[in-house]
Amino acid sequence: MRQLVILLLLSLQSAPPVTVFLIGDSTMADKPLVDNPERGWGMRLNEFLRPEIRVENHARNGRSTRTFISEHRWDSVRTRLKPGDVVVIQFGHNDQSHEKVDRYTPPDQFRANLVRFIEETRAAGAQPILCTPIVRRRFDSTGTFFDVHGEYPDLTREVARTHSVPLVDMHRSSERLLRDLGAVGSRQLFLHIPPGIYASLPDGRRDDTHFSEFGAATVARLFADGLRVADPALAALVLR
């Protein structure tokens, strides 16, 4: 870990620049900018990092740890890593979707896949960062928040602990945010689009998983704030 920290600090001062690779699902992924209100938080991350840091967003809609590997998306990242780079790993949304057999990943395989990302990132001299999945917006009839991710956030925390990986606990920070905003105020983070505003959404859209422009920026800030806490050395990436 000490060697990785030294490499990271040196990379901030000389070429080539540090690249932050993002791997994950639709909550992080790039989205079309034209006639589309949906944004992934990875699209806004560069605003909170030092200007010399490069962000490459490899997250994709609908991907779990299993499909990110089976589709060779991880290989395309792994083979480009260099010492001093950072890999931000955020999965769980799709891994826990029992009803979607194209993406579901059983807990033991989910854990093993996270470990693979960590070990192969470290083998390249880069630094892994684990993120728990961001909560979906769920409130019951009394306005009380409830979570639907089951054991997957805890599995991520366990892997981070047992493999000494910095953890940005987006699950807990986003839950606090939604609880603070409440059932009504939290809508602004997500896609509550009236009919007739976007040609691509003539009937509007109500989506409590994916982010609005405001939501993506807010969640990107949550990550940056969490990174400062997760590891003092990695805090050097973040704008003050």
Structure, described:
With 240 residues, the chain is α/β, with parallel strands linked by helices. The chain has one domain: 3-Layer(aba) Sandwich (Rossmann fold). It has 7 helices and 7 strands; from the N terminus they run H-E-E-H-H-E-H-E-H-E-H-E-E-H. The strands form 2 sheets. Strands 2-1-3-4-5 form a 5-stranded parallel sheet. A two-stranded antiparallel sheet has the order 6-7. Helix 4 links the parallel strand 3 (86-90) and strand 4. Helix 4 (107-123) packs parallel to helix 5. The longest helix is centred in the last third of the chain and has 18 residues, at 213-230. It is globular. The model has no long low-confidence stretch (mean pLDDT 92).
Separation, N- and C-terminal Cα atoms: 24 Å
Number of helices: 7
* Count of structural domains: 1
Gross morphology is globular
Give a quick rundown of the structure:
Helix content is 36%, strand content 14%.
Question: How does the SSE layout of this entry go?
Answer:
Blueprint: H1 2-13, E1 19-24, E2 54-57, H2 65-70, H3 73-78, E3 86-90, H4 107-123, E4 127-131, H5 152-162, E5 167-168, H6 170-185, E6 190-193, E7 205-211, H7 213-230
Parallel strand pairs: 1-2, 1-3, 3-4, 4-5
Antiparallel strand pairs: 6-7
